[in-house]
Amino acid sequence: MPSKSPISAGRDRDTLQSPEGEEERSAPGRTRRRIQMRRSDVHGNGVFAVQDLAEGETLIEYKGEVISWKEALRRHPHDPAQPNHTFYFHIDDGRVIDGNVKGNDARWINHSCEPNCEADEVDGRVYIKALRNIAAGEELNYDYGLIIDEPYTPKLLSEFPCWCGSEQCRGTLLTPKDEDEEKKKKKKARKKADKKKAEKKEAKKADKKKAEKKVEKKADGKKAEKKSARKDKSGKD
Questions:
Q1: Which of 23, 37, 119, 188 lies at a CB distance of 3.0 to 4.6 Å from 105, suitable for a disulfide?
Q2: Which residue from 158, 141, 3 is spatially nearest to 85, judged by alpha carbons?
């Protein structure tokens, strides 16, 4: 069964690579190369910062063909030798982004239990954002947050090994189900706060524009009065 979260098929040293140095150009407001795909010491291919990246930056969109879960099941597996490793990314509306078709370098980003990035879904599109400042040369990673409905037996856990090497490493790509729920709650609360902040900013902008129009209208009124007064004076003369 394909996963409902991205599992990089690039973990195998012998898997097909995308062109070395493929550049992501879709991240908003950027033209300079900031990230690059190359071989990773963690496993297989990885994506690295080419320049210093700031916390909160949108680095790359996870691209691919958007398909139904039924179609994802039909296509599975991408690699029969690694049935648990796919380029699928499950999105909130139940559909799946298949990074193996029309995908980009985002599909090569490795998992970490102590990530420096996160995957953020906005209107059905997934963006990888920096969780902290990232120095040039650092490998990008995020927590895949893989959840499987069946019980987490030692055998199942061993089928999804993690090689991130962090002090917080769980030893598996599978996320504890209670931890996943907590993450979802925090993410939802953060999105709600961000939305409220954006709305407040827009309201402030609208009020400023309204005030400017009021001042402009008042100034136009004064100009009209002066013009009328000059006309009256000219008529009397």
A1: 37
A2: 3
Measured CA to CA, the distance from residue 15 to residue 100 in angstroms comes to 12
Give the chain's radius of gyration (CA, Å): 26
CA atoms in the 13 A half-sphere facing the CB of 223: 6
Where is 141: in which H helix or E strand? strand 141-142
For tokens 């599975």, what's the residue? 76
- The amino acid occupying position 15 is T
Residue 30 half-sphere exposure, CB side, CA atoms within 13 Å?
17
Looking at the DSSP bridge assignments, the partners of residue 113 are: none
Residue 109: per-residue pLDDT:
97
Q: Which DSSP state fits 48? A: E
Contact 130, 53 (CB under 8 A): yes
Distance CA 10, CA 40 (A): 10
pLDDT in tens, 36-56: 999 999 888 999 999 999 999
The Cα 190–Cα 19 span in angstroms is 36
Helix extents (H) in the chain: 69-75, 154-159, 177-236
What's the pLDDT tens digit per position in 56-98?
999 999 999 999 999 999 998 878 888 878 899 999 999 999 9
Measured in Å, how far apart are the chain's first and last C-alpha atoms?
95
Calpha distance 73→51 (Å, rounded): 38
